[in-house]
């Protein structure tokens, strides 16, 4: 099979011909049709996430079809089924976190495109228990961004509870998807972008945001909750200052620059800061039931597999108009 391979962080991916993988016990062999590019992929490639499997095939927003079932593979899948493969690829099922329905915190967890090979390839294998059936409403390219931007965004959103006035800092892929759910559920949405990014602010207002402005501005009303999707630690104190009493700031990224110091008064009155780590299978089940009802729409740009470096470069430079999705062709 063809695959884009990372030999060492801070190097470009190389196109290689590799043996087709074989499914082990409980695994599916999946012929990949599409794999979306995620900011986490950049964090892995740029060395901001330590200890990836090397050499590594990145990618964890995978859509494909089951080619073969390993022994004892989950019976909910059959040959030819379309499946989605997300970031969370395996947990031990035995630790205190797994036994308390917090498998996303499992100390031994393995992650697709980070500690196990991912989807920048024509084939992959995946633990059947951690794969999803995907809603028929979406074609393969449309579905791919839902598998991380959608799932992690959804987990971040659910941590805001029933907040009526919701702020979103950074209006990239995850924010765009989750904003649609927030508006569907009749939240008042306040969007914060880079200072002076009028085009993105106008796009947020067109989508239905009650207000959009720069991240250095305060909203016209105090927020009940804020989600930070941008990987910028300096946004945390800014978001805190925008919160009403008892509000929550949810940090939705796997990596963030350092958070600067801030006065305790900004945290007082029972304001909360929390992070989101990974996802659970329950998140996926809930999200894929909800998404087609909204319906959540994705915006994508497609690239051939061998153009993965170009897609990553354009993502890093902020030159994409939608989620980059690699397609494998025939």
Tell me about this structure.
The mean pLDDT is 95. A hairpin with an 8-residue loop joins β1 and β2 (14-17). The longest helix has 12 residues, at 173-184. Strands 3, 4, 5, 8, 15 and 16 form a 6-stranded mixed β-sheet that branches. Strands 11-10-9-12-13-14 form a 6-stranded parallel β-sheet, with helices on both faces. The chain has helices at residues 39-45, 96-99, 140-143, 149-158, 173-184, 198-207, 235-242, 281-290, 308-316; strands at 2-5, 14-17, 27-36, 62-69, 82-85, 88-90, 110-111, 123-127, 165-169, 188-193, 211-214, 223-228, 243-251, 272-275, 300-304, 323-327. The protein has 2 domains: 2-145 and 299-327, Medium-chain alcohol dehydrogenases, catalytic domain (Quinone Oxidoreductase, Chain A, domain 1), CATH 3.90.180; 151-275, NAD(P)-binding Rossmann-like Domain (Rossmann fold). It has 330 residues and is an alpha/beta fold. 47% of the residues are buried. α4 packs across α5 (173-184). It contains 9 helices and 16 strands.
Annotate the secondary structure layout.
Blueprint: E1 2-5, E2 14-17, E3 27-36, H1 39-45, E4 62-69, E5 82-85, E6 88-90, H2 96-99, E7 110-111, E8 123-127, H3 140-143, H4 149-158, E9 165-169, H5 173-184, E10 188-193, H6 198-207, E11 211-214, E12 223-228, H7 235-242, E13 243-251, E14 272-275, H8 281-290, E15 300-304, H9 308-316, E16 323-327
Parallel strand pairs: 9-10, 9-12, 10-11, 12-13, 13-14, 15-16
Antiparallel strand pairs: 1-2, 3-4, 3-8, 3-16, 4-5, 6-7
Helix pairs in contact: 4-5
């Amino acid at each position: 099979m063809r695959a884009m391979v990372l030999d060492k962080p801070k190097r470009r991916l190389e196109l290689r011909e590799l043996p087709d993988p074989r499914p082990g016990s409980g695994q599916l062999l999946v012929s990949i049709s599409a794999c979306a590019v995620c900011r986490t992929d950049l964090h892995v490639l740029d060395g901001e996430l330590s200890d990836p499997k090397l050499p590594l095939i990145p990618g964890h927003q995978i859509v494909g079809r089951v080619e073969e079932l390993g022994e004892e593979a989950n019976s909910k899948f059959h040959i030819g089924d379309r499946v989605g493969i997300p970031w969370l690829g395996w947990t031990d099922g035995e630790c205190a976190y797994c036994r308390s329905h917090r498998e996303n915190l499992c100390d031994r967890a393995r992650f697709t495109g980070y500690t196990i090979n991912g989807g920048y390839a024509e084939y992959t294998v995946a633990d059947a228990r951690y794969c999803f059936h995907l809603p028929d409403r979406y074609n393969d390219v449309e579905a791919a961004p839902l598998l991380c931007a959608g799932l992690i965004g959804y987990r971040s959103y659910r941590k805001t509870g029933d907040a009526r006035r919701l702020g979103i800092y950074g209006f990239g892929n995850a924010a765009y998807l989750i904003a649609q759910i927030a508006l569907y559920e009749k939240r008042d949405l306040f969007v914060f972008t880079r200072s002076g990014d009028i085009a993105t602010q106008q796009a947020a207002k067109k989508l239905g945001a009650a207000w959009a402005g720069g991240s250095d501005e305060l909203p016209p009303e105090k927020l009940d909750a804020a989600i930070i999707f941008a990987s910028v630690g300096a946004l945390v104190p800014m978001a805190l200052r925008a919160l009403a009493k008892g509000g929550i700031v949810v940090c939705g990224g796997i990596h963030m620059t350092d958070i600067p110091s801030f006065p305790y008064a900004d945290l007082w009155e029972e304001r909360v800061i929390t992070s989101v780590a990974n996802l659970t299978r329950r998140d996926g089940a809930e999200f894929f039931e909800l998404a087609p009802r909204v319906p959540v729409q994705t915006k994508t740009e497609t690239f051939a597999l061998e153009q993965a470096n170009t897609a990553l470069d354009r993502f890093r430079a902020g030159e994409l108009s939608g989620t980059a999705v690699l397609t494998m062709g025939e």
